[in-house]
Amino acid sequence: MVVKVYGPDFASAKRVLVCLIEKEVEFETVPIDIIKGQNKDPDFLNLQPFGVVPVIQDGDYTLFESRAIIRYYAEKYKSQGTDLLGKSIEERGAVEQWLEVEAQNYHPAIDNLVIEILFARKKGTPSDAKVIEESEKKLGNVLDIYEERLSKSKYLAGDFFSLADLSHLPFTKYLADMGKMYLIEERKHVKAWWDDISNRPSWKKVSSSRWPLLE
């Protein structure tokens, strides 16, 4: 049965799409127009009570939260497509560690920048310069730690591409849209890592598809 992915326009859902492509899982997408409030329709709230995307339906199974979804598919299809979890329990632990770093340290800073720069631009509302400055500084501090880590291994969890790397793709892309790509480019090992993961066929396919959120 084909997997349904709700809300493909949005960055978090693109994590899921990249994962499904890497795992060679067939899927179809169901657009959700948040501007029109479709995420608050009763039918959608039956799938996702918090009214946010993405959500997947896999037969009779429904799951939300993008990182939970990519963990689910990486495990369900572990022997199919790209191994995104590592080959040992130690490698799996490293993947989980860096996924948490992305969620708890990297994402909050970059998400604040997206809200204050891209969302504000789209809505025509003023940005909070202090939040932008503080978030950029926090993101820079995180990337300094990444630079040290990536000086020792090709990818975050080791010398293999994993969920930990994949999870960074959709929001890091927004740095270019915000004129902040220098945060990546001024760090030699971070830049090499980004050049590598952003050129994977799975990400090229997802990022070039017509699911624009902010364009």
Describe the fold and architecture.
By secondary structure, the chain is of the alpha+beta class. Helix content is 56%, strand content 7%. It has 10 helices and 4 strands. It has helices at 11-22, 42-47, 66-76, 89-123, 129-150, 163-166, 169-177, 182-185, 188-197, 201-208; strands at residues 3-6, 27-30, 55-58, 61-64. A 4-stranded mixed β-sheet has the order 2-1-3-4, covered by helices on one side. A hairpin with a 2-residue loop joins strand 3 (55-58) and strand 4. Helix 1 (11-22) packs across helix 10 (201-208). The longest helix is centred in the middle third of the chain and has 35 residues, at 89-123. It starts with a strand and ends in a 7-residue tail after the last helix. Mean pLDDT is 94; it is low at 211-215.
Primary descriptors:
single chain; 215 residues; alpha+beta; four-stranded mixed β-sheet; 10 helices; 56% helix; globular; disordered C terminus
Quick synopsis:
The protein is an alpha+beta fold. The chain is 56% helix and 7% strand. Strand 3 (55-58) and strand 4 (61-64) form a beta hairpin.
| Termini separation | 32 Å
Characterize the largest beta sheet: strand count, sense, and whether it forms a barrel. 4 strands, mixed
Main β-sheet, spatial strand arrangement: 2-1-3-4
Oligomer: single chain
What is the total tally of β strands? 4
Structural class: alpha+beta
| Inertia-based shape | globular
